Amino acid sequence: MNKLSNKNTIKEILNKHGFNFSKSLGQNFLVNPSICPKMALDCVRDGINNVLEIGPGIGILTYELAKVSKKVVSIEIDNRLLPILSETLSEFNNICIINNDVLKLDLDYLIKEKFKGEEVSVCANLPYYITSPVIMKLLESKLPIHSITVMVQKEAADRICALPGTRESGAISIAVRYYCVPEILFKVSKGSFMPPPKVDSAVIRLNVLKNPTVDVEDENLFFKVIKSAFMQRRKMILNSISSIFKIDKCVVSGILVNLNISVLARPEQLDLKDFANIANEIYNYKRKQ
Fold first, then answer.
1. What is the sign of the dihedral through the CA atoms of 214, 215, 217 and 220?
2. Domain 219-288 adopts which CATH fold?
3. Which residues fall within 8 angstroms of residue 23, CB to CB, at 6 or more apart?
4. How far apart are the first and last CA of the chain?
5. Computed over its alpha carbons, how large is the radius of gyration of the chain?
6. Sign of CA dihedral 217, 220, 226, 232
7. Could you give the 3-state DSSP secondary structure of residue 127?
8. DSSP secondary structure of 23-86
9. 116: alpha, beta or left, given left = phi > 0 and alpha = psi -120 to 50?
């Protein structure tokens, strides 16, 4: 068993290095011994044994990933954890720790350098405040990623995996399903962490597609339509598009009618294809101006 999931062992290691948890970095270390092995096995279940890990902490998940992977490259922003990771992962020679901010890193270069451009699986335990930015960077960068297995707050997991066209859906739901097929693997109680957070979490897997699920003329415009719609989710899509893109409501109304979309529709009532069609119509309209 991985001793790093033992609370007393963790406290001993942290005290030895004078480490204190950072609230600003959302640090909560897993202490449930059953979680990390399950995440690690899911990460490599399709035979992809190159793993890019985000936020190793003291190495509890990294330890399990190293046992089942050819190579693990872990990105850790907190340099206080580097000496701890050197100690906790000393028995492995297939781990590389990168001290940097994942949101600032050139991940394409990193994967080419560390994995020789081979396909990778991503595994992470993400704090709430960077969940969406990290996931979208991974997907939008068009990297050779096979899947993303990540632990997030349960509310975020439900939103990310929500079906478009449902009340639970949001901009992240639509964006994620453009690039991949999401699934919720299992829930994780707040008592599984040290210190325990205020809410439960869940592990989700994003199975990245080779090609997007819908065809769009301009991806940037497509995502602008989605973001603008859900920024004002109580408004009808007609009003949101008209105000954001400076297009007369009569024109937008005509676009919606032609697409068999109600002019009274709100964003959570539209599916992925609806947003793609709207974006393509706006693209064609703008080109004619």
1. positive
2. Helicase, Ruva Protein; domain 3 (1.10.8)
3. none
4. 65
5. 21
6. negative
7. coil
8. TTTT--EE--TTHHHHHHHHHTTTS--EEEEE--TTTHHHHHHHHH-SEEEEEES-GGGHHHHH
9. left
Which pLDDT score, from 0 to 100, does residue 224 have? 93
Check: CB of residue 57 under 8 Å from CB of residue 81: yes
- Does this model's pTM top 0.85? My answer is yes
The domain ranges of the chain are 3-208, 219-288
Single-letter code of the amino acid located at 1: M
Residue type, 258: N
Predicted local distance difference test score (pLDDT) of residue 1:
44
For residue 22, report the phi and psi dihedrals to the nearest 5 degrees: -105, 115
Beta strands across the sheet bearing 71-76: 95-99, 71-76, 50-54, 120-125, 145-153, 201-208, 180-188
Residues paired with 52 in a beta bridge: 73, 122
In the predicted model, residues of the chain with pLDDT beneath 50 are 1
pLDDT at 9: 84
Considering the domain delimited by 3-208, tell me its CATH architecture: 3-Layer(aba) Sandwich (3.40)
What's the pLDDT score for residue 85? 94
pLDDT at 2: 64
| Residue 96: Cβ within 10 Å count | 13
